[in-house]
Fold this sequence. Notes:
Low-confidence stretches of chain A: 295-300
Number of strands of chain A: 12
Order of helices and strands of chain A: HEEHEHEEEHHHEHEHHEHEEE
Oligomer: homodimer
Structural class of chain A: alpha+beta
Largest sheet of chain A: 7 strands, mixed
Number of helices of chain A: 10
Amino acid sequence: MLIKNLGEQGLLALIRPYCIPQSIGDDGAIIHPPADCELVVTTDVLVDGVHFSDRTTSPFDVGWRSVAANLSDLAAMGARPLGITVGLSLPPELPVVWLEQLYQGMQACLSSYGTGIIGGDLTRSIVRTVAITALGAVNPERLIRRHTAMPGDAIVITGYHGNADGGLKLLLDSQLGQNLTLEDRQILIQAHQHPQPRLDVLPILDRLRDDTSTIFQIAGMDSSDGLADAIVQICRSSQVGAIIDRAAIPIAPALTHIYPDSALDSALYGGEDFELVLCMPETIATQLVASLDSPGKRLRQQGAAIIGKITQQLAISIVDPTQQYPTLNLDMQSGFKHF
Amino acid sequence: MLIKNLGEQGLLALIRPYCIPQSIGDDGAIIHPPADCELVVTTDVLVDGVHFSDRTTSPFDVGWRSVAANLSDLAAMGARPLGITVGLSLPPELPVVWLEQLYQGMQACLSSYGTGIIGGDLTRSIVRTVAITALGAVNPERLIRRHTAMPGDAIVITGYHGNADGGLKLLLDSQLGQNLTLEDRQILIQAHQHPQPRLDVLPILDRLRDDTSTIFQIAGMDSSDGLADAIVQICRSSQVGAIIDRAAIPIAPALTHIYPDSALDSALYGGEDFELVLCMPETIATQLVASLDSPGKRLRQQGAAIIGKITQQLAISIVDPTQQYPTLNLDMQSGFKHF
């Protein structure tokens, strides 16, 4: 069955079960924001052949990843999701099962984080395009922004970086990683196919704020365009620099197994890990890392690490305390290139 | 100059002046919703070759129309705009001037209605696609929805229907409308190229509510998919029917000049006029029509008309009181087909 054979009513009937019922049926979706909150709105567009392809990404995974990318942007600002809208353009010749599995993937990710689809638009095109807008709410005092990093702040990153890039490379090159165990393979491929937006970090930050008498600001963003890009963006916005300890950047053993020499490059530039890069006072940073490395979780699998410090001097250096590797300087004017 | 030659930073520098400054620079846009409001969120996707083409629509007009369509969805629910996000996918070979004029068109429409661009995403694709999400706010008691029409309600429509369709046909067929005056041509083409979302109606409705002691509900939607579709959607959602007076549907003289026999078809099925179709008690409807037909405005150019009544009987009939034309029945199961 193709989309063009289903008809408008058939398409709506197929999509409706994936939407929050009370929000649809009008020209727009209706949501009731919590009192005294700031709204955070983020939009991401995924295009077939650019952000996904049938070769590496099932329709379920396109759905999962497109939602995860948007929820990660909310997490990056400290906001809890209120819902998403989905603007789809699809070729009429596309099998209906593709659309169905796309919505299954979106819903799987959304329901993991207690939210859902509130509206959208569906139209035809010659290229599959998924445009998602996510809405979130945050207490104005707990908003995380890029431009508030302060000299002396510790830089905390969650999870592993480079794994999503490693997973994508494994899917693209069947010769790569033949020495990997099945479990290592799975860790990397899962990082690419089912990234986990770090909304789990927000209640921990809330607790840390509630438990301390000092008021502090957290600056940060997510690492969707790579860890190096995130550090550059935060430093540029905040008019500060950073010193990063090369050895403190957690690298998954699986990534080192496929890239013995260049795992750090993947971690710095790979992108799409959707982890958080946060700047905060060191005492708070230490507590955050301890909270995320709690017993019962595999060490650093879901954990966090302090990788460096914000400096007044406007330069970003990745240093090796053992002096085995030369210092790496990140260009503060560069950034991830989408075009 | 092509988009691919401009580079990421160049593209951002080009777009930034069109965005509200305080909302950008983070993973998402930040907006502060008014207290005790409902949020309305609406998404529309426009695709090159489906919703616009270089033949009939300049980039400025693509921008204007894509914004107008979204603001019209907000007006249809009684909501004032808070801002929009713009998800663009564009071929790298596209001239930069196209992108610039697109943003000029969006901004021209947005600033007419006191709102702006708060965020978005820009990526490459083989087909130009504009995905806009608009956010609006409305007092929960003044929300306009489709499912609350009541038997006895008068049906009010704003403006002319069919003009946008007439304008598009004129642009597509140079043989058509050679008998038209330049002014008539302009009226029709403007209706297609620069539709006016009817946000101007909302303060009038507020005043009518404030001036009366009775509490009443307004049901409605916009006529983006055609007047007939709007009537069908409202009746279906509200589980009611309607009797429409054929002669009461305002038809622009210009439209009758090009379609002496089928102007009503254009008005009913043409679509994209972005007017409002509202159901309310007759006394209120009469006041609304009087307010919109105020002196100084050309009669019915920006006005409104009562075209019929909501009925308990589940049928939609378009009747001719002079019995010159047979009664037309709209199928309540049908609707506009997007695929």
